[in-house]
Design a protein that fits this description.
There is one protein chain. The chain is 26% helix and 7% strand. It is an alpha+beta fold. The protein has a two-stranded antiparallel ribbon with strand order 1-2. Helix 2 crosses helix 3. The chain is globular and about 35 Å long.
């Protein structure tokens, strides 16, 4: 559904991928990681995405979610543990989320953090340049 409809709303790509009516289960952390891997800036307008970018993003979302599941998820809170009381350890693999000020693992530029929908969005200004006028 997402691949067929991302440009209909003309919104930022991160807003679209965390929209549960377009694609289910993608949270803030997984969205930041998939956008970094693609690489796309979170505010890039969905109307300007090329089909190869949508395909790449969906592939990276799948990869990120699979890796997170294999590693037991991302737990920053003691309330979120598995049935054995263990927290996940995907947070050790994060390349974007929570990396503000740290060097981008791809290019070395310090990562940035912006406020996004009462949360945070993390991005590399070199690899994921901010769109100009909603375009790339």
């Amino acid at each position: 559904v997402f691949a067929a409809r991302p440009g209909e709303r003309g919104t930022g790509v991160k807003r679209a991928i965390v929209d549960q009516t377009l694609i289910s289960g993608v949270g803030n952390i997984n969205a930041a990681e998939a956008l970094w891997r693609t690489p796309l800036h979170y505010a890039r307008n969905t109307r300007h995405l090329k089909s190869r970018e949508v395909d790449g993003l969906l592939s990276h979302i799948t990869q990120v979610m699979r890796e997170a599941l294999e590693q037991g998820g991302t737990s920053f809170d003691a309330l979120y543990v598995n049935v054995n009381g263990n927290s996940g350890y995907f947070d050790r693999s994060l390349q974007a989320y929570g990396q503000e000020g740290k060097p981008c693992q791809r290019c070395g530029t310090p990562m940035r953090r912006d406020s996004f929908m009462n949360r945070s969005s993390f991005w590399c200004p070199t690899c994921q340049p901010r769109p100009r006028n909603g375009k790339f």
